[in-house]
Fold:
Amino acid sequence: MLALLVLVVPTTVDRVSLATSTYLCSGYAGCQAAGYGNAGYRQASSTAYWRMYTGHNCTNYVAYRLIQSGMPNVRPWDGSGNASNWGVAMGSITDQTPTVGSVAWYEPHASPAGANGHVAIVEQVISATEIIVSEDYWGGDFHWRHVTQSGGGWPTGFIHFNDRVVEPTTAPAIVGTPAVGAPLEVAAGAWTPTPTSVTVRWLADGVAIPGATATSYVPTPDLKGKALTAEVTAELDGYTAGRASLATAPVAPGAFQPTELPTIQGVPEVGQTLTLTTSSWSPQPAKVTTQWYADGEALPGATGASLVLSRALIDRRISARTSATASGYRKSISTAPETTPVLAKPVAVTSPSRVEGTPRVGSRLAVRAGSVRPTDASATYAWLRDGRPIFKATHPTYTVRRGDIGRALSVQVTLARRYYRSTTETVAVAPVTTVPEVTVRTDATRRRVVVDVRVRAPGASRPDGAMTVSVGNRSVEVQLVGGRARAVVRDLRPGVKPVVVRYAGTDVVRPAVARSKVTVPRRR
Structure:
């Protein structure tokens, strides 16, 4: 069985002459030469599309263009293919809004259409009332025409089969949380084809915000509680603009961000003044207030930048809070860390402490505390060697050790009493020395005596130093090296002679004297 080819009755329309229509070009060759073109229809016009008549025919040309834009070569409705029926059969997608790629449809006798109506392709939308179309006519020629809505010649409607629209491939989005003072940013997304411009307009509760046309926007205090919308428009010549409307939740109150926390300066002591350093926020608040606290309890009237400490605050910890406020923002509170308990005043030393005892190895040193006020202040002790604490040396007495020789000893006396600030004294001790032991051995021959000396000392077993050796009425100077010395005394007469050794000592070894006797033999 042969398939029935149903062709439509062609529409015959001559070139129109209307004040509202201006022909930009005529004929396939003429339009090609003028830079408008015919999308290849000149070579394809001998083929029927959507079962329309071939050649110069408005319906065949428009069907060809729609197939070129991606539609199948199957008429999307049943029944008559006359131009007059297009807007009727496709009434669900026909409206009064011109878009690039839509079909400009004329009902019968709507100029420039004849009894069978007319269709054309919308090539450009200059405005809602001004368009450019391309069209072909049965019994006529191919044209591009500029049309305005005022007067006659405006299409009856626009059929949106497969418009040329800039479409998003990645949807635009608003980045950020809607809050007063918090920046919002529109991520424009990706569009196809690539637009020449993407613009943004911000609205609040549906009303445009004056001047808010950048991709970023910072909600102002007057917008608190309002829902924002960012209208994104992507435009490209020859295409219907792509649009997206992005809505946010109602704008929340703003939040101050502290950039510098407050601190309390000063000594927490009766009579002293505490000062609160200035807090900083971003953005800067309209009003900043201060409140002082004692043990977390607000102090009446204490709202200034400083606080004088009274006796009523003894043993209480002081803190302070600053509050930042502004229209459209949540109140922000910054709290300065608490001080140590407020003290009455320092323990006063009326007479200094002292150390009794001789600072030498093995001897005991004792601290005698001075006078203080109040008199019932307690004392603790810490003995120091070269300024560093000696392990477990925390008693008022200290026995000097070998390791202290040549080192600087001192003792810290810390005086404390509840509600008072502690006072610490440091009492220096004279340099630690050691007492030597001097051993003398003599060897006498005729008219000569040899004296060997050895010196030992706790903590300094082999000292050096100067030494004088006397035998009778004769003396010699010798040098003690490594704890040993030898002296030879000559020209002595026979008999018993006293021997005296005098050691001069060093910085750490004390001087010493040793005595002995020696018998010088007679000549045989």
Remarks:
- Residues 90 and 159 are 7 Å apart (CA to CA).
- Confidence is low (pLDDT under 50) at residues 1-19.
- The chain is about 5% helix and 40% strand.
- The chain has five domains: 21-159, 167-250, 257-336, 348-428, 437-520.
